[in-house]
Structures are given as C-alpha cells and as structure tokens.
Amino acid sequence: MKASIPTGTSGLLSSVAESAFAAGVGFLASGILLAVLGKDPIKAFYYLFEGSFGSANNFTITLAYAAPLILTALTFAVGVRAGLFNIGAEGTLYVGATAAVAAGLIHLPFGIGLLFVLIAAGAAGAAWSIPAYLLKSYRGVNEVISTIMMNNIALFAMQFVVLNYLLDPARSDKSASIPVDSRFPTLLPPNLTVAIFFSALVCFGVYYYLWQTPGGYELRAVGLNPEAAKFSGISPRRPMLYAFLLGGITAGLAGAVEVAGTFTPFAIYTGLSNLVNFGFNGIGVALIGRNHPMAIVLAGIFLGALQAGASSVQIAGISFEIVEVIEGMIVFAIAAPQLYRMFRRRLK
Predict the structure, then answer these.
(1) Pick from 53, 31, 54: which is nearest to 43 by CA?
(2) Which contiguous run of DSSP H or E holds residue 1?
(3) Which residues neighbour 239 within 8 Å (Cβ) at sequence distance 6 or greater?
(4) What's the pLDDT tens digit per position in 281-325?
(5) Contact criterion met (CB below 8 Å) for 149 and 88
(6) CA–CA separation, 306 vs 323, rounded Å?
C-alpha cells in the first residue's frame, strides 16, 4: 500500500516545492502585517533567524524546543494515519511529565534511572489514551471531543498531583527536580542534550512500524479506506487501539523529554507553565511534516526555530502578541495544504 506522502523523486520535489511556496506566502503575509503596523519586516525577520540560528547557544535553544514538539507531533500524525483526529497530546504530555518526575524520585544508577523515567512516562501516556479509545471504539464518541475533555482533566489532575505529592520542599513554585543520573546527558551546555536525538530515534521507530510491520500496514489501511480494510479482514478496533496507544506513548515521552532533557529546573512548575502548548503546537508540526514521521523531525526544528527566535524579535520593538500572530500565520500557511487534503479525504 502506498503512503499518502509521495515517495518518488517527483513527488518528493513536489512536496518540497509546495512547502517552500507556502512558507514564502506565510512570510510575505506576516511581512505585510508588520508593515501595516509600522514595523520593519526585514529587521524583524533578521532577529527571528538570528535568535534561532545566530549562534551555537541559540541553535541549542532551537533544538531544545524541537525535541518535545517532534514527539507530540507523532501523536497527531499516527492518529491521522489511522483515520483519527487525536488532539490529546497536550493532556497526555502533562501525564507523562508528572510520571517522569515521580519516577525520578527513585534514585537509580546512571542510565537505568533515565530508562525508568522514560518507561514510566511512556506507560502513563499509553494508559491515559485508553479511555479515548474505549469511548471511540465501543460508544462511538468522536475522538476530538473525548481528547479535548481528557486534556482538561489532565491539566487539573496533574496540578493536583504536583501540588500535593511532588512539590519541591525548598521551593513552592515547582515540583521536585529529576536527579542528574535520570536526565538526558548534556551535549552542549546549557540546552542541548541527547533528547533531540532520542526524539529523532523515536520518529524512525514509528516510521519503521508504520511501513515495515503488519500492524503498521493494518493501521494505515484502516486510515486510508476503512471499508476496504474491513472487507480484507482487518478489524478496525485493533489498529485504532494501536494508534491510540502509540500516540499516548509518544506524547508521554514528550513530557519526559521536557522535564528530563531540555531546560532547567528539570521539573514541573506548579501551574504546568513549562509544559503548556507543546501538545497543541505538535499538531502544527505534524501538518507541516505532512504527517510523515521522518519529515516531522525537520518540521519540529522549523517550529522550534520560530519559538526560539520569538524573544529576539521583541528587540525590534514588536510585542510578544504580534510575534505569536506572525508565527501562527507562517505555520498556518505551510500547514494549510495538508489540512485541506485531510478534511477533503475525511468528508468524502
């Protein structure tokens, strides 16, 4: 079965050309907006790219932002491959991060501690995805509704857990920190850790599963044509379960990456502020990457660069809110073609 992303040379060039054109449209539209607001778009874009790639330290910040985004993007992408709109990565990330911090309280030797943290986060994420699967599979509840509800439940439930069970005794604004032996090793201080390579490795694993295993074939078959897949003897419930579980694992791992492999204090702030929006932004990464695991790596770095450069753009006298609008316009322009194709296929 062919992937929905073109695999031939012409198809690849077509996708690259489409993305490049869409990016140009996004930058042009945001430049026009800046000009209308009386700002210098050239200066703004200069600071945007300088803040993302202008120095080794800036580039490490870009990669630090990208690592969890890549994993939450996989949650949405795997769901789409199975014909689902799973937007529950935001809440599942909260659950995974909380499980990672809790697992880190058990002091284990270097390597084993990190493995335990990752297993705890992935398992918690998978478990959190099961209610949405049950509601979809046995009661016909739309996964968009159920995952939105689960996101809100996760937010307040994990706040309760952090405040009542995981709070740092020395600081009231954050949870206990994950021990050094349970963190991702640092490659280039202060921000670049092995987490970015771990995220890329997970992408490769998901790609291999989807395209090189019978379970992955069934998942994609159900997503492309559920009636034909059912006629071929493929039960839709099993691929759906795999899609929810795999998406839960990747989002849970994203939570672990954020609290064990990116920024200090390697903990969760009591309001979960250092975790907010990584799940939702992952949807944009998945759309930019055409829901393909390998393309998601580059898409994650691209969006990570936009987020890393956002603070630098404010040097040009542009408010943070306008910077967010600019980022949204660029991301939407690039993601719009894939979003259109997804809705057109779903409405057929």
Answers:
(1) 31
(2) none
(3) 82, 215, 218, 219, 221, 222, 223, 229
(4) 999 999 988 899 999 999 999 999 999 998 888 877 888 888 888
(5) no
(6) 9
Task: Give the number of other CB atoms < 10 A from CB of residue 238.
Answer: 14
Full set of structural domains in the chain with CATH: 56-308 (1.10.3470)
For residues 117 and 105, the answer to whether their CB atoms sit within 8 Å is no
Question: Residue 174 contacts by C-beta under 8 Å, 6 or more apart in sequence?
Answer: 167, 168, 265, 267, 268, 269, 270
User: Looking at residue 141, what is its pLDDT?
Assistant: 96
Per residue in 196-234, pLDDT tens?
999 999 999 999 999 999 999 999 999 988 888 888 888
Residue bearing tokens 């769901």: 79
- Contact (CB, 8 A) for 94 and 273: no
Mean pLDDT, rounded, of the chain: 90
The burial of 123, by beta-carbon neighbours within 10 Å (0-12 exposed, 13-18 middle, 19 or more buried), is given as: middle
